[in-house]
Structures are given as structure tokens and as C-alpha cells.
Amino acid sequence: MLLPLFIAAVGYLLGSLPFGYLIARAKGVNIFEVGSKSSGATNVKRVLGAGPGNLVFFLDVLKGVVATAWPMFFFFWQAAALRHTDINSATDQMLEILGIQMGVVGLIGAIIGHSYSCFTKFRGGKGVATATGGFLVLLPIATLIAGAVWIIAFYASRYVSLASIIAAIALPAAAFFLHEQPFLQYFALLIAVLVILRHRANIVRLLNGTENKFVKKKEISQ
Predict the structure, then answer these.
(1) Contact by Cβ (8 Å): 79, 40
(2) Lowest mean pLDDT, pick from 19-23, 42-46, 134-138
(3) Phi/psi of residue 22, nearest 5 degrees
(4) Where are the alpha helices (DSSP H) in 50-159?
(5) What Rg, from alpha-carbon coordinates, does the chain have?
(6) 159-208 per-position pLDDT tens digit
(7) Within its chain, how far is the Cα of 139 from the centroid?
(8) CA distances for 167 relative to 152, 171, 173, 175, 219, angstroms
(9) How far is CA 181 from CA 73, 76, 126, 178, in A?
(10) Which contacts (CB < 8 Å, 24+ apart) does range 25-31 have?
(11) Please, what's the largest Cα pairwise distance for the chain?
């Protein structure tokens, strides 16, 4: 039990790195006091512009990639080493499965850390970018499909929240049709549910017609 706890703790600390807050602070802005009061890339981009917002998005995605990839690499490396021995091949297959499971543990820790960072009094973002980074490692093709769905939904509606919700639903659907491992299909479905729950206030505003459409910062000033 100590190993999953360690991996989850490392993932949490990685996810807790408050890039959105720090980059906004460098610009003299407390991101928790403006816009949607979230440290996510969308709020940073809305408040500070495309440059800082895109940087935050990249760094938040990177948190998910690292938190997921390092435990997978460790177990895959162990499995590869066993293939050069006389040990039963079932052992290296078990290590590969365990690596995927521990990658999921690391990603869960990162998503929680991003959403409830210990460095910012347990405030953060919605975790979509960090989850995207992790799924790029776990389910690369399904994640790219979900990303394409996000782009289409966003440019059709200009609502980041709606695009995120639709893409979250598209991810487990794509994983199912691509016949990915059932464990990863269920995990993608769980994350989709969590993303929807994290956007419940946005859903209410969408239904009421009060959700703000995304416009570039320079457009706001005109």
C-alpha cells in the first residue's frame, strides 16, 4: 500500500504547482480575485491574454503528463528488464498492467492537487488541462479525438465550459469505440463525470443563458 500512496502523493505535489497563480502574480494580478477566480488557463487567458494563458495551459498539461508517465516508465522498465531473463513472461505482463494502474493513481493525485493546491490554500482550477496531459499518456488516440471535439465545440459556441464538458464525454466514448482496456474506459468515464460536476455552476449559467462567451482580451478593451 505504501507505493500507491507515494505515487499519489508525488502526483498531488506535481498537480499542486500553482502555475496559473504564479504567472498571474508575476504580472501583478491575484488570479483568485478576478474573472472566474480560478487559477486555470482559461481564466488566466481571459484576464491576461493569450501568451500567459497558453503558457499556463502547457504547464498544467505537463503536470498531468509527468505525474502519469513516471510510474508507468518505472514499471515498464522493470518489465523490459525481465524479458531478458528466464522468468515467466506473465510477470512482465503483470508489471505493465501495474504500471498503467499506478499511472492512473499518479494522475488522480495530480488532478486533486491542481484543483485543491496545498500552496494556494486548497484553491485551484477545474483540472481539465492536467487530466488532458495524463490521458495523452494513457489514451493518446482517444485524447486527440476528444481534443478535436473540444476545438469544434468551442469554435461553434465560444463557450469554454461547454466545449470542456462535451470533450469530457467524448473521451470515454472514443476509448470505448477504440476498444481500449476496460479499466481505462471506466477511468475515463469517471473523470468525465468529475469534469461535469466541476462545471455544474457553468451548466446552470448555460441553461439560464448567463454564461460568458470567451473573447480575446484585446477584444474586451475595444
Answers:
(1) no
(2) 42-46
(3) -70, -45
(4) 50-82, 89-115, 128-138, 140-157
(5) 19
(6) 999 999 999 999 999 999 999 999 999 999 999 999 999 899 999 999 99
(7) 13
(8) 10, 6, 10, 12, 26
(9) 18, 17, 26, 9
(10) 27/52
(11) 70
Q: Using CA atoms in the order 195, 214, 59, 189, what is the torsion angle rounded to 10 degrees?
A: 20
| Phi, psi at 117, each rounded to 5° | -70, 130
Q: Do the beta carbons of residue 11 and residue 64 sit within 8 Å?
A: no
Q: Are 101 and 183 in contact (CB under 8 A)?
A: yes
What is the per-residue burial (b if ≥16 Cβ within 10 Å, else e) of 165-183? bbbbbbbbbbbeeeebeee
**Cα dist from 177 to 106, 165, 194, whole Å:** 25, 19, 21
Q: What is the pTM of this model?
A: 0.88
> What are the angstrom distances between the C-alpha of 99 and each of 6, 105, 107, 120?
14, 10, 12, 31
Cell, residue 83: 524479458
> Among 78, 83, 75, which residue's Cα sits nearest to residue 106?
75
